[in-house]
Amino acid sequence: MPRPQPPDSIAPARATSLLLRARVLIPIARPPIDDGAVVIAGNRIRAVGRWKDLSRGHSGEVADLGEAIVLPGLVNAHCHLDYTAMAGELAPPKKFTDWLKLITTCKSGLTYSDFAQSWLTGARMLARTGTTTVGDVEMVPELLPEVWTATPLRVISFVEMTGIKSRRPAAEILREAMEFVRLLTHERCRLGLSPHAPYSTAPELLHLTARASRQHRLRMVTHVAESDQEFDMFMHGRGEMFDWMARSKRDMSDCGLGSPVQHLERQGALSPNLLAVHVNYLGAGDAALLGRRKVHVVHCPRSHAYFKHRAFPFEELSKVGVNICLGTDSLASVLKSKKQAMELNLFDEMRELANRRPSLPPQTILRMATINGANALGLRREVGELSPNAFADLIAIACKGNAAESFEHVVHHSGSLSASMIDGQWIIAPESVETASSAG
Questions:
Q1: What is the extent of the structural domain holding 60?
Q2: What is the DSSP letter of 227?
Q3: Quick check: 391 and 374 in contact, CB under 8 A?
């Protein structure tokens, strides 16, 4: 695979400080600010506040975005970039296992180059629609680190592991993944581990991976309790998924002992470094258990709608203090629309959630797409908020409203961005920026 080149739109490193002004600023970690400003030096935010306060004595570059809302770049806590090419290829299934069989067949027909192109296409989608940080599950980790260099995104790549079909020893699978993790370093990107799901990963591999991830302070991702079939398999030792896995020679002795969440607890996998993706089907006491173990939960609204799952247990999880964040999942599980092109877009996920839960405050939804995702990915106070010493990752959207209306405007935003910055560099440069005097 030829080494991809960084996009031409990435500007050189900032030599002087920048004072950025906008009609409204949403720091997330504090209330919105009318006529707000951000001071950026290098790749970090140095100050956040009102324009009239920060402009006094500022001697560097000044840029006024005008009628715009500036907010932190969105944090997509769960994605499968290398599945982007499957957009619209899989019709919504009647059963979750039907979809698993379809996607397995679809993946088998793709080449290394197909996966590379798919990854890069998905990354470009995210960058142009406001995501600046993404947690991505890597089915083809060999694409790294080359694809990292070809995107401005801040990427946490989770090395995917299964092992049911290969029959390889769990210790060998984990050792190979950890060697990969130790070998790769990158200024902007990092690695984690992803035992795929309880049904597709042997209990020993789940246990060993959980222990290794804590020992080496790595984030871990697993899909859990995504479908009613998975819940039935673990809770009752029966059903379509149980029969399919049994035919695949999976040892089914871990089934019939409780819910998928309880299965993870038995393997020692529930801990603050775990991102539990989906969590649509809970047994008695599961929410409280996730809360006690401080597990992060990633909800993917459009994927949830695609499979027609029962209502996501938002209230049950939030009541016990679970940190809930948002992800796009992959385009292999998004409904095809005649009205708009299919793309990985966290604004679409926010709108889907808002439409399904109109009583949910827009500020709560925006936190799920920013600061909550940052906390889940181990990037607290670094991304997902505009605050001193955080990375200069921010986006802007056009808006003529005031701070009181800003959350609603952001959550229902559609269309292009006015600007985007990652690591202090313009990714989408403002088309018309008024360079003002700092005394203005």
A1: 18-73+385-428
A2: S
A3: no
